[in-house]
Amino acid sequence: MNLTTTVSPPNGRLLLRLARLDATLMWRNRTALFGVVGLPAFFAAMLVVSKGNGSTTAGMESVLFTGTGNLGFFLLPAVFMNLLNVFTARREELTLKRLRSGPLSDVEVLGGSVLSGALLYLVQSAVIVVIIAAVLGGGAPGDPVLMLVGMLLGVAVFSLLAAALSGVTPTVELAQLTVLPVLLVSMLASGSMIPLDELPEGVRQAARLVPLTPVVEIVRTAYLGRDFTGGGDHGSVGVLEAWTACGPALAVLAAWVAAGVWLARRYFRWEPRRG
């Protein structure tokens, strides 16, 4: 049984209560906590340790390049990996089925988990912003509104992909195998850690269709006030120029949202897989 097409307005207070419950359950699961919190904490610590090493990437300090990339990359542990595990586990434990049979709407049953992952991601990102601004000397974000738009669209994309892929993941134990290809492709082809400029032309164009790539391009451009989009030369851009430069990346994210909605409706399951 897949996601329904009927969407009713969710109860905001109820979503917050469900999100708090999700956070509590995650805190009690040490394995999940390591992946969702430990991995970002490691990357944050590496930024501090790498301060002042003198290396440059894409014409800027490597720590600033990596730090702004982390603002996109943290979507994977906090949202994608987290939600895929949660949806798979609760489906197999019949928790989703029981919740759905009560007074909660479909949006509320899933929305609490999504809200919990989104808030965790935003908190982790706020920590990185503080490190960039106060420790690495990168200053405050040049366009926080554009940056937030890119991040929230990323949350939507990876929440939907997590819901869709949970439907083809038989058990929680196999969830790690499900996330591995997405994790590896995102690390290598999103520009979060390796500049896309260093990739061959054909690979570079394909990499810009990876769902994390437009998030990284938007966030990095918005934060640094320099054009890090597909056709950008990394020159300085104003607020309006930044929005214009990020137009194609925003369009790619919008396309991924539409694709994610279709995939989630097609593959998400409320009941355990059989066979």
Automatic annotation (TrEMBL):
The keyword Protease does not apply. It is found in: Cell membrane; Membrane. GO terms for biological process: response to antibiotic. PROSITE patterns: ABC_TM2. GO terms for cellular component: ATP-binding cassette (ABC) transporter complex. It is a multi-pass membrane protein. This is Transport permease protein.
